[in-house]
């Protein structure tokens, strides 16, 4: 693309007009030279009586000059193109000028590109994160110094297959199926015990890859400290809460209690129950996190589980008056943990009942959609504003804290659902509009389904 392609149309038209005008002038100069040579040759030929011969000699002389110019142009292009072009006239002068200008512009662009590449490489060399370029044949092409510290790469590894150097089975699986891990992969370092590396691979070009890795040991330690703290504090709170709840319940059953104290004890009992539910949810989350690597290979009978969820929903629905419907279309079962799935699905059903105004409609479904099967809970409740949906599965995130206090929610229900589904290689989809109800879908992949015999 020429430099002029970025200019306005009227300026480009002016440039083209000038170029055509200059080219016409150069051609006119060659034509005038040819006419002058022919006139001189013709006059000499007329003087000595050999007009045709001297006209032919004049033409030969003109073409000899052109061949000489062509020779000089060829010599300059092949040997001295970095130097200014030779002084020529006519069309050859225009050709040399355009070639010289194009070469000079190309050298300028190359110098700028080399400078840009040098700056980019200098920046990458200074990064604490490892950056590795892998070519289309999966060989190491370039890496920065941090890659040697984090991944153990050496100078002699250049042009070697990356999978012969980084041989962790999880990494090999990730490398061959990058799209299955959009957030990358955390690996334990082979260079230093207790060190963890986050690896992220991005495809570009035909089959080339960019690998970025960074140390997440500190983050892992903080996360483990958080898990330990939540686990320990939850266990420590459980005993005193049980004692308090027992005494409060005993005192509340006393018929001789003055009426002015009864309301206070009812509130204490309600808050103790809520605190106990929070502790139980925290313990469940902690257990899910600690057992994330355990296999879940039970065959969960979905027909039985769906009927159990429907019966539980009918019992919980007594004070709300909703119409609860069961839609059982799929015959597939799930390979997983029946206790965890019942807890996750129960959370979704309970939320739908709690956050739907009285006399609403709740539909619990188990359906097939192509190669996947979907557990869904649809309600006609208050709905959720779009900006809240991406954060609903965060711990303790509340769309409306006042409403959550009224319903007794702990803020951990959807976080538990997210963990359970992740451990079953499933995911949660949420569709909702304010005042139009919500639909929560748990989507299970084909390899997690057990077709009917």
UniProtKB/TrEMBL annotation:
SUPFAM superfamilies: ATPase domain of HSP90 chaperone/DNA topoisomerase II/histidine kinase, Homodimeric domain of signal transducing histidine kinase
Bilayer-spanning residue ranges: 34-65
One Gene Ontology MF term: phosphorelay sensor kinase activity
E.C. designation(s): 2.7.13.3
Domain Histidine kinase span(s) in chain numbering: 232-448
Assigned keywords, A-Z: ATP-binding, Cell membrane, Kinase, Membrane, Nucleotide-binding, Phosphoprotein, Transferase, Transmembrane, Transmembrane helix, Transport, Two-component regulatory system
PANTHER family with a match to the protein in the record: PHOSPHATE REGULON SENSOR PROTEIN PHOR
Protein name from the UniProt record: histidine kinase
